[in-house]
Design goal:
Largest sheet: 4 strands, parallel
Radius of gyration: 17 Å
Oligomer: single chain
Length: about 230
């Protein structure tokens, strides 16, 4: 497989983009600079909030900006594009139809990894936008996996960790997450899915068990292989 450049459409949010790139570095089997993936990172911090756009029904500004950014990465020579934002994947099918290079789909990839691991019931931790559109519910259903979405009182805690804490540069409340974790386990989930990249940032700050599959890790692994580079295995 020919090796190619990776394009990262980031800034959604910026800290998540920084964590994502580190994951790509960590997952590439490289022993020197020249063995890493040439990477173009466009951190567009002015991208409108994806969840607000979805919930309001006014998605045009997000769609247009995602497409403009992706086309820039395409013009700059990206062989594949990664968007380290789960909620933005609501727009990936429409985006893909207008691009010449593949956009690596972290939602579909995560469902595939859950299936390969034999997971039967997965708890989804994500934004209101991702949950409301059923992005993971639909992808997992196609793979024969049942999903559990948090009830309103638990979902409010998830959103608080994402928006009130991680997006504001805070460490994130372990006390809140412990309540979320308890719900997933009581609900009989085989695995929990960190389906928001701010929760991937939370994972950087707190020791989470292998009960959780981080969609950001799935995306990073698929970026490495899509660009023709070898994966580093634990």
């Amino acid at each position: 497989m020919a090796k190619g450049k990776l394009g990262v459409l980031g800034g959604l949010g910026p800290q998540a983009t920084q964590v994502f790139y580190q994951r790509v570095l960590d997952l590439t089997d490289a022993s020197r600079d020249q063995e890493h993936i040439p990477t173009l990172i466009f951190s567009d911090t002015q991208m409108p909030d994806r969840t607000k756009a979805i919930l309001s029904g006014d998605t045009r500004a997000v769609e247009e900006r995602l497409l403009a950014d992706a086309r820039l990465l395409e013009e700059w020579g990206a062989a594949a594009i990664a968007i380290p934002c789960n909620t933005a994947h609501a727009f990936v099918p429409g985006l893909q139809a207008k691009l010449k290079v593949p956009v690596i789909n972290m939602v579909a990839g995560t469902a595939a990894e859950l299936k390969a691991a034999g997971v039967k019931r997965a708890g989804i931790l994500a934004t209101d936008g991702t949950i409301g559109l059923g992005l993971y519910r639909n992808a997992c259903a196609a793979a024969g996996i049942e999903t559990v979405d948090p009830p309103p009182e638990i979902q409010r805690l998830v959103m608080s960790v994402i928006y009130d804490e991680i997006k504001q540069g805070k460490k994130g409340s372990w006390e809140k997450f412990a309540v979320i974790d308890g719900f997933l386990r009581d609900a009989g989930c085989d695995r929990g899915v960190l389906a928001c990249t701010e929760l991937s940032v939370f994972r950087e700050q707190h020791a989470l068990s292998d009960f959780y599959l981080d969609a950001m890790d799935v995306l990073a692994r698929r970026c490495v292989t899509a660009c023709g580079y070898p994966l580093r295995h634990p």
